[in-house]
Amino acid sequence: MTTTEVRELSGRARAMLRAVEAGRAEFSGGREPDLYVDGLPCCDQSATHDLVRAGLLRPSAPAGYGQRVRAELTEEGRNALRTA
To answer: 3 pLDDT band (50/70/90 cuts)?
Structure first.
Protein backbone atom coordinates (compact mmCIF):
# COMPACT_ATOMS: atom_id res chain seq x y z
CA MET A 1 0.00 0.00 0.00
CA THR A 2 1.48 3.32 -1.00
CA THR A 3 1.14 6.68 0.74
CA THR A 4 -1.50 7.68 -1.84
CA GLU A 5 -3.51 4.55 -1.10
CA VAL A 6 -3.32 5.20 2.64
CA ARG A 7 -4.80 8.66 2.11
CA GLU A 8 -7.58 7.19 -0.02
CA LEU A 9 -8.86 4.41 2.22
CA SER A 10 -11.70 2.29 0.91
CA GLY A 11 -14.93 2.09 2.84
CA ARG A 12 -13.98 -1.41 3.94
CA ALA A 13 -10.56 -0.27 5.18
CA ARG A 14 -12.17 2.59 7.13
CA ALA A 15 -14.65 0.15 8.68
CA MET A 16 -11.78 -2.13 9.68
CA LEU A 17 -9.91 0.76 11.29
CA ARG A 18 -13.07 1.87 13.13
CA ALA A 19 -13.59 -1.67 14.47
CA VAL A 20 -10.01 -1.71 15.76
CA GLU A 21 -10.48 1.75 17.28
CA ALA A 22 -13.65 0.55 19.04
CA GLY A 23 -11.76 -2.38 20.60
CA ARG A 24 -13.73 -4.98 18.64
CA ALA A 25 -10.79 -6.51 16.77
CA GLU A 26 -8.09 -9.09 17.43
CA PHE A 27 -5.11 -10.38 15.49
CA SER A 28 -4.17 -14.03 15.27
CA GLY A 29 -0.56 -15.00 15.70
CA GLY A 30 1.36 -16.15 12.66
CA ARG A 31 3.65 -14.92 9.94
CA GLU A 32 1.08 -12.39 8.74
CA PRO A 33 -1.63 -11.62 11.27
CA ASP A 34 -5.27 -12.22 10.39
CA LEU A 35 -7.91 -9.85 11.71
CA TYR A 36 -10.98 -10.98 13.63
CA VAL A 37 -13.85 -8.57 14.32
CA ASP A 38 -16.40 -9.48 16.97
CA GLY A 39 -14.80 -12.94 17.06
CA LEU A 40 -15.31 -13.61 13.35
CA PRO A 41 -12.58 -13.66 10.67
CA CYS A 42 -12.44 -10.49 8.60
CA CYS A 43 -13.64 -11.04 5.03
CA ASP A 44 -10.65 -9.26 3.45
CA GLN A 45 -7.38 -10.53 4.88
CA SER A 46 -5.38 -9.01 2.03
CA ALA A 47 -6.67 -5.57 3.11
CA THR A 48 -5.65 -6.45 6.67
CA HIS A 49 -2.14 -7.29 5.53
CA ASP A 50 -1.97 -4.07 3.48
CA LEU A 51 -3.05 -1.98 6.50
CA VAL A 52 -0.43 -3.68 8.69
CA ARG A 53 2.31 -3.20 6.08
CA ALA A 54 1.29 0.46 5.73
CA GLY A 55 1.82 0.86 9.48
CA LEU A 56 -1.81 1.64 10.33
CA LEU A 57 -2.57 -1.45 12.45
CA ARG A 58 -0.53 -3.68 14.74
CA PRO A 59 -1.00 -6.40 17.33
CA SER A 60 -0.98 -5.06 20.89
CA ALA A 61 1.48 -7.79 21.95
CA PRO A 62 3.36 -10.71 20.42
CA ALA A 63 1.14 -13.73 19.78
CA GLY A 64 2.08 -17.33 19.20
CA TYR A 65 0.62 -19.35 16.37
CA GLY A 66 -3.11 -19.79 16.96
CA GLN A 67 -3.27 -17.22 19.75
CA ARG A 68 -5.20 -13.97 19.48
CA VAL A 69 -4.31 -10.56 20.85
CA ARG A 70 -6.06 -7.22 20.71
CA ALA A 71 -5.47 -5.23 17.53
CA GLU A 72 -4.61 -1.56 17.89
CA LEU A 73 -4.24 1.48 15.68
CA THR A 74 -0.87 3.09 15.32
CA GLU A 75 -0.57 6.87 15.44
CA GLU A 76 -0.54 6.80 11.63
CA GLY A 77 -3.72 4.72 11.70
CA ARG A 78 -5.47 7.22 13.97
CA ASN A 79 -4.40 10.05 11.69
CA ALA A 80 -5.55 8.20 8.57
CA LEU A 81 -8.94 7.51 10.14
CA ARG A 82 -9.39 11.17 11.13
CA THR A 83 -8.58 12.39 7.62
CA ALA A 84 -10.53 9.68 5.74
So the answer is: very low
